[in-house]
């Protein structure tokens, strides 16, 4: 009798990013782009210029969607008081997981208030790949991470990150 080992691996790749300022008097995206350095290294980078600081009240609504026949809800659609969760990360592990995807690549890694422009710098697909295929595995397919950022209970920005797991 012989044993056969089958290794199944999956890979996450960014496919697009779209950033929209919903209140240009409050903030604007200086840049928001997906950069493909070569066939194996892709990253996203963005900078939000904030015009009315300090920001002391931040809510985030994020939804994780999967493409079936159009993008449909998949697993999560939640809203959180980001200032409270950043102060006590264990209060919302779902938000904590998604925040951990970009925390180390950004300057959004502290509690409120935010007195500076917000930056996500070179968030690599390889890092996200580890999180969504090994730490918390997701099924193969195309995904959309859709987030709406509110300050003082007013919708200020929308960020959509598209990717595939193959």
From TrEMBL:
Domain of life: Eukaryota
Name under which the protein is recorded: Uncharacterized protein
InterPro entries per the UniProt record, alphabetical: DUF1091
Taxonomic lineage from the root: Eukaryota, Metazoa, Ecdysozoa, Arthropoda, Hexapoda
PANTHER family: DAEDALUS ON 3-RELATED (PTHR20898:SF0), DAEDALUS ON 3-RELATED-RELATED (PTHR20898)
């Amino acid at each position: 009798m012989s044993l056969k080992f089958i290794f199944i691996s999956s890979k996450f790749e960014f496919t697009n990013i779209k950033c929209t300022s919903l209140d240009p008097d409050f903030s604007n995206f200086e840049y928001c782009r997906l950069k493909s350095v070569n066939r194996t290294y892709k990253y996203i980078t963005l900078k939000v210029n904030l015009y009315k600081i300090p920001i002391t009240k931040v809510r985030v609504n994020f939804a994780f969607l999967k493409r079936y026949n159009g993008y449909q809800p998949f697993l999560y659609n939640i809203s959180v008081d980001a200032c409270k969760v950043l102060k006590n990360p264990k209060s919302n592990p779902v938000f904590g997981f998604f925040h951990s995807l970009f925390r180390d690549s950004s300057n959004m890694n502290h509690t409120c208030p935010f007195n500076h422009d917000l930056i996500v710098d070179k968030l690599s697909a390889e890092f996200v790949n580890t999180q969504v295929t090994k730490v918390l595995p997701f099924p193969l397919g195309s995904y959309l991470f859709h987030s709406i950022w509110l300050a003082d209970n007013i919708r200020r920005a929308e960020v959509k990150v598209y990717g595939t797991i193959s």
